[in-house]
Amino acid sequence: MGRSMYIHIPFCEHICHYCDFNKVFLENQPVNAYIEALIQEMKEARRVQGDVPVRTIYIGGGTPTALTALQLRTLLEAMHAIFHLEEVEEWTVEVNPDSADGDKLAVLKAFGVTRLSIGVQTFTPELLSEIGRTHSPTSVTQAIETARAYGFDNISVDLMLGLPKQRVEDFSEAVDQALALGVQHISAYALKIEQKTVFFNRHRKGQLSLPPEETDVAMYDLLKVKTKEAGLSQYEISNFGKPGYESRHNLVYWNNEEYDGFGAGASGYDQGIRYQNINPVQKYIDAVTSGKMPRLREHKVPLIEKVEESVFLGLRKREGVEKVAFARQYGVELETLFGEEIEEGKRRGLLEESEARLRLTEDGLLLGNEAFELFLAVLDDEDLAKVKV
User: Fold this and answer.
1) 97 pLDDT exceeds 80?
2) CA 8, CA 131: separation in Å to the nearest integer?
3) Please, which residues bridge with residue 273 across strands?
4) pLDDT tens digits for 264-294?
5) What crossing angle do the helices spanning 303-314 and 334-347 adopt, rounded to 10°?
6) 322 and 356 Cβ atoms separated by less than 8 Å
7) Any bridge partners for residue 326, and if so which?
């Protein structure tokens, strides 16, 4: 079936106020040494795994396009030399509108990148400033036009809802502008206040003016209506794509499949073990160059946990959990393991069930975490005895 891989580029030319991903300011960072460490980590993975075809690739950050065109070329050229990439179905790179210049896009296209994910967040200038973004609405349009000029026809944009001072009208305009640009995919995420961010510090001091919950709900409802009218299908809680343009790489996560994670702070899932790499850039480089695996932590996923993950991750997808596929994988019916939880979810209006599937209701899409919690840490040894893998 092929491997999937995530590659993390932690460098940013500025730090957004909401971002808690592993990132550092680009200036004075050992970027070339980091790329060489990435390549070395990939070579070790290739040595261990053998020549396994790669199915999907996602390069995220941070800001991958904070790298120069030459640095991008060095990385992508090495990936082709290390891995079997002839059968890649989807190769995504995250792009900042400010750094989507022709030289970089030409490199991405030449080495087989098929999909761009552009961090837009909002088209309202005042809100862009509020969240610490430096691009303008005009630069988004220019980035998409440039991408199309270099042959990219699979473009996704990220939008955010629930931002400080954001009105429903602001979000409505953002969705309209994204759709008017003819993008094939929209990811829309509600703001979460995460620790170690500017927004967390402001929120703790009472200096962050967030919209009320009903405003967030109105934004989300509006998003579902507008994307449907434009021919984009909601295939996951926060993701909407034209037919055939669903993110194949992200479906790897929601289908609870394994993948490789490369780079500082990257996570992976291999042979039943979930792992996270060392976060600090220099410590990651030092670990790799000394011949060590750059692991910060590893977790052997017990079978019970894997079964539960398959349900709550699968419920993120709009199609939900396919009962026949679940029974085929685990040798037991979904209802046999989770009958009480399913009935409770239906009673609370979070879940709906057909002969073939279990999925979230419209209310469940809004209250996904409540539905997921029904399936966390509920199985015991007696249940495990019913599972046959």
Assistant:
1) yes
2) 22
3) 270, 300
4) 999 999 999 999 999 999 999 999 999 999 9
5) 40
6) yes
7) none
> HSE-up of 131 (CA within 13 Å, CB side)?
27
Cα(341)–Cα(351) distance, integer angstroms = 10
Domains and CATH numbers, the chain: 3-254 (3.80.30.20), 303-384 (1.10.10.920)
Per-residue pLDDT tens over the stretch 227-260: 999 999 999 999 999 999 999 999 999 999 999 9
3-class DSSP string for 290-342: CCCCCEEEEEECCHHHHHHHHHHHHCCECCCEEHHHHHHHHCCCHHHHHHHHH
| The pLDDT of residue 202 | 85
pLDDT value of position 1: 67
Q: Which residues contact 305 (CB under 8 A, 6 or more apart)?
A: none
More confident residue, 51 or 179: 179
Each residue of 335-355: b (16+ CB within 10 Å) or e?
Answer: bebbeebbeebeeeebbbbee
Give percent of the chain with pLDDT exceeding 90. Answer: 84
Q: Are the beta carbons of 166 and 122 closer than 8 angstroms?
A: yes
Contact (CB, 8 A) for 127 and 163 = yes
Tokens of residue 252, six digits: 């790897």
CA–CA distance, 152 with 105 (Å, rounded to integer): 9
Asked if 282 and 31 count as a contact pair (C-beta separation under 8 A), the reply is: no
